[in-house]
Amino acid sequence: MANVQPSDAEVAEAVARTGYVYTDPIGDPVVPGISAVDPDRVLDVPPPTWGVEPTRRDQAAMAAGAR
Amino acid sequence: MIDLDDDAHTAAQRGWGAGWPSCDGAGVAGLAVVRGPVSGVGVSVHRRLARLVALLIAATEERGYLLRAGECWGYVCRAIAGTSAPGHHSWGLAVDINALSNPYRFPRCTDLPTWTPLLWNRYGFAWGGNDNEDGQNGKADSMHFEFMGTPADADAMTALALFELTGPLAESVSASRRKDDPVAVIPINLGSDGTFRSAVMAEAGGDSIVVARAWITVASTWGRTAYTVTALDGVGRPMTQQRFDVPNNATRVMELPSGCKLVTLEGKADPNAIPAAALISLNR
After folding, report:
1. CA B245 to chain centroid
2. Chain centroid to CA B140: how far?
3. Is B106 exposed, middle or buried (0-12, 13-18, 19+ CB in 10 A)?
4. What is the ipTM metric for this complex?
5. In chain B, positions 72-131, which contact chain A (CB-CB < 8 Å)?
6. C-alpha distances in angstroms, B271 versus A52, B190, B203, B223, B274?
């Protein structure tokens, strides 16, 4: 995927042009659609029966965590 | 550049704090719910990643692929199934999209348009559908997108997405507002010895008034195929060349350089193998 990803120069230009610095994103008018988690509303999560076996990424993460 | 294949480091080792069981990494920073602008379907993610996920979900939906309710998940403070190791979702850095039509399965099964993983790849998300596409070590996890960078990388990718997907560049390219971009099948005729040569007109960027970006995808089924893909400029000079040894039931992708006008494909298929190739364009 290296040929899809941006070059360092592209990233540097974007950072310079946008001047983006992280701030709390809740309610940001520039990037709409972000809200705080509603404590009264249960988040969608996979069903308990989902993921009954570790994926390849899971297995790699377990190996990485064990080092 | 973020290494999308870096499975040697956990999110905790990349600076995101603790995953399951405390899930303090996401707990301390906080979570945010990101909703698709068309579907209204929400996923919860680490707050520092929320803008980037919001921009990518918006770009995905505005180009015609909608999230479906009850099939999309983000943060879950859980261990990996059957283990005591933290799950990827316990940091809030991974999202599952439309799980029923992008199941954990071999052979890979997905209804994601080709551009979708490429879009998310560009901004630092690995796609689980690229895992085990040969079926030798398990199954492909086509629903799964996972951010592979550090918190600083998340900020840099957010800046890039703001610049490319919402700024003046986006308005000139209108990438995020397109429902359909053209895909052209590239004909490949095999010789009796399995070799082939093919060519396709393939404008990408530069002075093209039509095409902003373009990719060649090559694939192989019923066996392995070796490809050499060469991008040429307007006077036939090679700009870049890549070789791909594509296993059975696998695909590879190459983005064409800006200024490309013509692409040649040469190679050889194993006996009984069937190669396939396509040109995908993102129009201005």
Report:
1. 20
2. 14
3. middle
4. 0.87
5. 72-76, 80-83, 85-88, 96, 99, 104, 118, 121-122, 124, 126, 128, 130-131
6. 38, 10, 33, 7, 9
What is the dihedral angle through the alpha carbons of B146, B131, B179, A7, rounded to the nearest 10 degrees? 60
Which 3 state secondary structure label does DSSP give B27? helix
Question: Across chain A, where does the E strand assignment appear?
Answer: 34-36
Phi/psi of residue B17, nearest 5 degrees: 80, -165
Considering all CA atoms of chain B, what is the largest pairwise distance in Å, rounded to the nearest integer?
63
Nearest alpha carbon to residue A58 among B245, B88, B178: B88
Average pLDDT per run of 10 along chain B, which is 284 residues long? 87 93 89 95 96 96 91 90 84 94 85 89 92 69 94 97 77 46 83 94 82 86 95 92 91 86 95 92 72
Pairing of strands B274-283, B211-221: antiparallel
